[in-house]
Design a protein that fits this description.
The complex is a heterodimer of chains A (303) and B (258). With 303 residues, chain A is mainly alpha-helical. Chain A contains twelve helices and two strands, in the order H-H-H-H-H-E-E-H-H-H-H-H-H-H. In chain A, helix 6 crosses helix 7. Classes of the chains: A mainly alpha (303), B alpha/beta (258).
Amino acid sequence: MSFFLLILIYTGIYALMAIGQNLITGYGGMLSLCQAGFYGIGAYATAILTVTFGWNFWATLPVAIGLSALFGLLIGLPTLRLNGDYLAIATLGFGEIVRNVLNNWVSLTNGPMGIQRIPMVEIFGFQINPYRKVAFAILVWVFVVALYFIFKRFAKCRLGRALMAISEDEIAAGSMGINVTIYKVVAFMLGASSAGLAGSFFAVYSLSVTPGSFQFMTSVLVLCMVVLGGMGNFKACILGAFIIQFISYLPQLLGVTNLVPAQAKQVFFGLILVVMMVWRPQGILGREKFTYVKKSAKGIQEG
Amino acid sequence: MLLETEKLTRIYGGVVAINDVDFHASEGLITGLIGPNGAGKTTLFNNMTGLDVPTRGKVFFEGNDITGKSAHEISRMGIARTFQNIRLFKEMSVIENVMIGRHFKVGNKDKGRFRQALKSYFFMSREERWIYDSAMEYLEFLELGKFANDDAKSLPYGHQRELEIARALATEPKLLFLDEPAAGMNPQETEHLMETIRRIRDKGISIVLIEHDMKLVMNICDEITVLSFGQKIAEGTPEEIQNNETVIEAYLGREEED
């Protein structure tokens, strides 16, 4: 049971990142490979502020979100004019820069040793430590559900429609009066901030952070979740996060860790991606379409 | 003059695509832009609509210099366009394509971008309904209403061209550029398109169109400009163009007089 909760918690943390990635890649059509970078920024923001400066976890949350959004802006402005593969390489580079800075800025991040003894989350005097897995799972999933609704609304209103238009044809979108750069940068910042949020939760769940947790592979996993579930569908990327996490922990779940090397799951993910691309490129659930129904004048309601 | 270019020149590497072109489009008229393949017609379009930046020369719209402005700025000033190789948002529904055209028509521009974005977010359904209803009007104008929820890519070719026009009209332009609107249409569809173009003009929207179908051009254009090898070789009414020696030589070829 506790093992299932562990999977649920990690699914929640990754789902936060996947929701952000979905806005960037599923709607904005930008192939970004640096969610791990923003994840690391969020995690270290929380770790450093709580351990070194004695802040409360809840106070570090907006800083983690804001800081990753700021870095999203800084990396987004110069790189988002790039397309496809070029953007992927530029963002990959950014993710690696973050990891290297975390590794080498010893005075701030304590280098490869990382930051230990991060204080546990407290809410109204109730401590949610990682051993109280049910409470922690609820905490994370409250945020997942909230983020899901917030981001889904972004996608449904005219901002999301503009993003979809941009991802389909930038030139046509520009000719329709849409400021392509601004929308891309905003989507990128929103996606980055969701990874920052995920990073904060990761920090207070592991109670320690080391640069090793924010590797390129993490970004790839998040992208896999979105592609597997279905691009342009927020429910699907939560499903994707669950499937990938479930597979990751399957050897432990079956008690065959000594038979299956840790690297085997990466091979397996690669295989899944290949199979998906061949048989179901739109993902398990596929893109979510909004149908527009003409309402009678009487039926107009505000919301 | 609604739109004017002054010695507009675009050079790609060593190739002079358009050379010192003085083009103009008058208010309330349909202006045709014709010329053999590779004459620089689309290049001229792109340089006037912000998709390309001219090497030399200037573009004026309603007396304002719009040279080098980006496509979305020019679109917001009141110039819309369609594309030679249809550029619809194929995975989106027909109505969504037109709703994109309504995108920047929402709300009060003085309020600032951020407040407008917040309003779009928190009062979504009211705003969406307005966008939908107004987009529907443009769809009905092009008689595409019944396809509203179909995927844009599933429309027949002729309707796709019309949808592009609906989408462009949704930006409420003063001037509409049509890049080969009749390409790939059969005679009946072309006939219908001519009727549509006249109806758009009657709404007070000026039109500039590139077209190879001479029947269409000579029938509906009030003024025609002829390009050849990047240079303007003639301009005038359809009758003047039909009788212009240079044009006949460069473009129509030597034909028997009728």
